[in-house]
Amino acid sequence: MSSSEQENRERDQKIAHNEAVRRATSAVRISGWAIAFAVIIGAAAVLIVWAWLTR
C-alpha cells in the first residue's frame, strides 16, 4: 500500500469515528428530549385524572 493510500485510509477511519461520535451525541440529545416530553405528558395526564376524581 502506498503512502497516500495509507493516509487516505487513516483519514477515512478518523472521519468514520467522528461521524459515529456525532450520531451517538445526537441520539442521546433526542432521547433526553423524548424523556422530558413523556414526563410532561404523564404529569398532565395525572393532573387531569386527579382533578376529575376530586371534583
Salient structural properties:
55 residues; 1 helix; rod-shaped; mainly alpha
In short:
Helix content is 93%, strand content 0%. The chain has 55 residues and is mostly helical.
Which SSEs are present, and which pair or pack?
Layout: H1 3-53
Outline the low-pLDDT stretches. none
Looking at the structure, what is the overall shape?
rod-shaped
The major β-sheet equals: none
Count of domain modules: 1
- Cα separation of the termini: 79 Å
Helix share bin: over 70%
| Number of DSSP E strands | 0
Briefly note the structural class of the backbone.
mainly alpha
Describe the structure.
It is a single chain. The chain has 55 residues and is mostly helical. The protein has one domain. Helices cover 93% and strands 0% of the residues. It has one helix and no strands.
